[in-house]
Write a structure and sequence with these properties.
mainly alpha
Length: about 110
Amino acid sequence: MYPNITELNLPWGVMPIRSFGIALMIAFLGGVWWSCKRAVRVKADPDLIINIALIGLIAAVVGARTFYVLHYWEKFEGKGVGAIFSITEGGFEFYGSFIGIMIATTSYLLWKGG
C-alpha cells in the first residue's frame, strides 16, 4: 500500500492525501450506510444512526487526541496550544477514542430517550 495517494497543492502549502485515511473514510461511510439500511429493515430511525455516527466521529478524534496529549505531555511542554491541536502531525490513542465515543453516544442516547 502506498502511504500517499496524491498531493493537493493549496495556497498555504502541499497537503498529502494518505491512503490509510481514505481506507478509514470508506470503512466509516460503508458502516454508516449498512447501519442505515439495517435500521430501515428493523423499522428504526436511520436519522438516529447518522446522528450517532457524526457525534461518534467527532468524539473519537477529540478523545484520541486528548489521551495522546495527556500520555505524551512532555512532547508538548513549551510548544504552545497550536502543537496540541495540530492533528496533522499524528498522535492518536485508541483508548481515548473508545472512551470518547462511549461517553458521547451514551449521553446522546440518554438525552434523546432512545
